[in-house]
Amino acid sequence: MESNEPRLSARPVRREDFPVIAAFPRNAEEQYYMYPKGTFPLDPEQLAREAEGRLRPTVIEDGGAVLGYCNLYGVEPGAHGWLGNVIIDPEHRRKGAGRFLVETMAAIARDDLGLRELRLVCHNTNTAALRLYWLTGFVPYALDGTPDPSGRNLMRILMRRVLRDA
To answer: Which residues contact 154 (CB under 8 A, 6 or more apart)?
Structure first.
């Protein structure tokens, strides 16, 4: 009997992945959540250039199909780093891909980079992401107000997850 369960794996991003990743945001709001400096529709080259300045840009895939992407930035060796540009293919949301991606990046941060803590920023209107981060062990520790491109006032929720004791 053949299983329909995804067989997720992770690997470093390749340049040819960026057109696929850039198509994941369905609208300007999703793109803003993923990459506030970008414009909608997201330019694959702009995203690729951003990745060059990040650590461990990673995709998750199932059978060769890219399902998600994120990276690390602002790394303070031995202390903490930030999870950035998190996005999952809309067809694979709420099916475990996001959890797999976050757990993969937490393992990279802890095991490969020796970080004690992983941090992220999530906007208050991004309920699905807030739930994912909460379910993967992140807790809020600060709030910061910011307007989105349309001028709507949002709250940026700063969250962290302890990866290992000091």
So the answer is: 123, 124, 125, 145, 146, 147, 148
Q: What pLDDT digit, counting tens, does each position of 87-129 carry?
A: 999 999 999 999 999 999 999 999 999 999 999 999 999 999 9
Phi-psi region of 57 (alpha: psi -120 to 50; beta: other; left: phi over 0): beta
CATH of the domain at 99: 3.40.630.30
> Which residue range is the domain that position 71 belongs to?
8-118
How far apart are alpha carbons 153 and 8 in whole angstroms? Answer: 37
- Tell whether 83 is covered by a domain: yes
Q: pTM score, two decimals?
A: 0.93
Instruction: Write out the DSSP string of 75-86.
Output: EETTTEEEEEEE
Spatial distance between the Cα atoms of 85 and 63, rounded to a whole number of angstroms: 23
Q: Is 47 within a domain?
A: yes
